[in-house]
Amino acid sequence: MTSEVIEDEKQFYSKAKTYWKEVPATVDGMLGGYGHISAIDISSSRKFLQRFLREGPNRTGTSCALDCGAGIGRITKRLLLPLFGVVDMVDVTEDFLVKAKSYLGEEGKRVRNYFCCGLQDFSPEPNSYDVIWIQWVIGHLTDQHLAEFLRRCKRGLRPNGVIVIKDNMAQEGVILDDVDSSVCRDLEVVHKIVRSAGLSLLAQERQEDLPDEIYHVYSLALR
């Protein structure tokens, strides 16, 4: 439970906001110095996502996606814009969203909205998104705020839409990172929060080929 490791909720959020303001608006900055893993990450994400986009009666649509904790748009550029008609981005750091406009290049014209907002305060437009992608950002929300955000995301899905969480998972319990003011939860804790938000797990996969020293990374598809 995050309530056991976060002493001051206001400070938890303000410290993270300050941390990200100091981070360079580059792919390496977005990935905490692990820019070299970006291609491996995107390639696995594409395979994971495409199983829902294949032909079939319950196929997920490809009109519109939302990139949560989007930063400068690494995932929007490499994963979402090639697969979806339009993309919306949301991030708490304004400088990242400004940088995104040049980083995304010509294809960036299909980014419809740049929302500057923390996810704890963000509400996706109801019935608007085929895919809501939430990567390496759930650790910046308390358990309660994460459950509430996922509930709002559920309302934001179009028919056959999917929410994907891709994030670090701890071996056991909840670990606080005091540097960037985030938490890392184990899979069981994340599953519990997902269930409390009224969502079901459709698929789960561990990311392979990452450096040994970093946390295990899992993708979870939810609806």
Structural commentary:
With 223 residues, the protein is of the alpha/beta class. It is 35% helix and 26% strand. The chain is built from eight helices and nine strands. The strands form two sheets. Strands 3-2-1-4-5-9-8 form a seven-stranded mixed sheet, with helices on both faces. Helix 4 crosses helix 5. It starts with a helix and ends with a strand. The model has no long low-confidence stretch (mean pLDDT 97).
Main sheet properties: 7 strands, mixed
Distance between the termini: 23 Å
Number of strands: 9
Adjacency order of strands in the biggest sheet: 3-2-1-4-5-9-8
What would the average pLDDT be, to the nearest integer? 97
Poorly predicted spans: none
The share of residues in extended strands comes to 25-35%
Content-based structural category? alpha/beta
Q: Please tally the helical runs, counting DSSP H or I stretches of 4 or more residues.
A: 8
Shape: globular
Tell me the layout of helices and strands.
Blueprint: H1 2-5, H2 9-21, H3 27-30, H4 38-53, E1 64-68, H5 74-80, E2 86-91, H6 94-103, E3 111-116, E4 129-135, H7 143-156, E5 157-169, E6 174-177, E7 182-185, H8 187-196, E8 201-206, E9 216-222
Parallel strand pairs: 1-2, 1-4, 2-3, 4-5
Antiparallel strand pairs: 5-9, 6-7, 8-9
Helix pairs in contact: 4-5
Attribute tags:
223 residues; alpha/beta; two-stranded antiparallel sheet; 8 helices; globular
